[in-house]
Amino acid sequence: MRNLVCFLEEASAREMLKGVLPRLLPDDIQCYYIVFEGKQDLEKQLVKKLRGWQKPDSAFLVMRDQDAADCHDVKKRLVALCAAANRPETLVRIACRELESFYFGDLSAVSRGLGIGNLVHKQRKRKHRFPDAIVAPSHELERLTNGAYQKVGGSRCIGSELSLKDNTSRSFKVLLSGIRNLFQIEDRDD
Prior knowledge:
By secondary structure, the chain is an alpha/beta fold.
């Protein structure tokens, strides 16, 4: 059995990945989720947690939101922490702006997951066409869904609906590609 150990900034990322990873990875890969209490807690404890992981045949993913920071600086800092933990092969991925950018990349998944009217036509709106450029996607998603979206519960419902092929969020595509490369697996259909 191989393992993917995910170090995550918040519980909503775990819920989204629980919906995505079973469709992306072969059955012989066991996923573990280490959830921190925000990005500062993640960065503070990451080296210790990475060093302390003892299960053999494990690959590691560190994922956090960009928020208002410079994406390259955030990634560089996380990569340095992984190297300090003697885990330089760790996959580091940044959700451009916020995790909710992934959801704006597939508004039909949001509709299905939350059981609300068809939002796919809103994907064609200029401000939604480039999901990674939306400044505050969590607030925009709450507004767009009239409050139906809540971070953890919404991520749980939407994650299993997200398309693995047709999502327009570049950072979501880069996340999936990186995970596939970790395990050298082929692209799989939804």
